[in-house]
């Protein structure tokens, strides 16, 4: 029978190496798991209120945030396409200049007489896409979304089924156009034989899609208008308010899907319902957006304790293995006198 002390002396080095290999393997699996979970920047729709996102983003870039994926619909898709290829403060300055130079007539060129003629003729739009295409050319420097430096997911709504399709490739001149085509104002956009409209129609803040990406953290810049306390007094006002309640309820349900373990920074627009086609307040919105983010980051700094904990959990196993291996190795040298 082999003495226990001899057994441990013989098998000790093997067990130490086995423990080391197991720990390093665990570290590798943890690292792969963390890589699979992405930092997500979520950009809502909002029409002219999309200028808020330009200001909202600045404090996050200054704090060191850089997403692995950008998710955007409508105006958020325009901003996302631009910053995915210009992730720097100078890029934000350029985007701010673009927003500040846009006029309502640039995007909605038809005069009231022409709009009335479109209605009488039974057309499916009040405006053509010409002005919107011009804006898209300014914000998207790539020929295909798949060429973006930071991957971008752009949502557009299938006009027939109501499903949202998430594009990660395709010509921005078509994909972004579809995501920004407000129904009734612009004609639907045909892609691969399917007609698409504004991505924000179904989900203006697509928390559900973001949850499907298994995010490690989410920064949401929400430029959607806030419901006011006034009772609408017109048929159109009642209709729009009713749809707004439905969409808000959906957003609340989708938001609850995000795990409480996932850090979320949600910057919300303070803007009450107004003319989302009025671009004359872009400079004011940009300043307001920056102020909102700075206020949030004062109470919820970036990175969060949870983010730092995830990094620590990835690093800790390797350090533990090194520490155990060195200690056991030292003991082995003493045991063998070498």
What is the element layout, followed by pairings?
Layout: H1 4-36, E1 39-43, H2 51-62, E2 69-73, H3 75-83, H4 89-101, H5 104-107, H6 112-121, H7 130-139, E3 152-158, E4 164-167, H8 172-179, E5 189-191, E6 194-197, H9 207-212, E7 217-222, H10 235-255, E8 264-268, H11 282-299, H12 305-336
Parallel strand pairs: 1-2, 1-7, 2-3, 7-8
Antiparallel strand pairs: 3-4, 3-6, 5-6
Describe the structure.
The structure is a single chain. The protein has helices at 4-36, 51-62, 75-83, 89-101, 104-107, 112-121, 130-139, 172-179, 207-212, 235-255, 282-299, 305-336; strands at 39-43, 69-73, 152-158, 164-167, 189-191, 194-197, 217-222, 264-268. With 338 residues, the chain is of the alpha/beta class. Strands 1, 2, 3, 4, 5, 6, 7 and 8 form an eight-stranded mixed sheet that branches. Strand 3 (152-158) and strand 4 (164-167) form a beta hairpin. Helix 1 packs antiparallel against helix 12 (305-336), helix 2 (51-62) runs parallel beside helix 11 and helix 7 crosses helix 8 (172-179). The longest helix is centred in the N-terminal third of the chain and has 33 residues, at 4-36. It is globular and about 50 Å long.
Gist?
By secondary structure, the chain is of the alpha/beta class. It contains twelve helices and eight strands. A hairpin with a 5-residue loop joins strand 3 and strand 4.
Summed up, the helix count is 12
Report the count of strand segments: 8
Principal-axes geometry comes out as: globular
Mean pLDDT: 79
Beta-strand percentage range: 5-15%
Low-confidence stretches: 29-35, 311-325, 327-338
Q: Give the termini distance in whole angstroms.
A: 27 Å
Structural class: alpha/beta
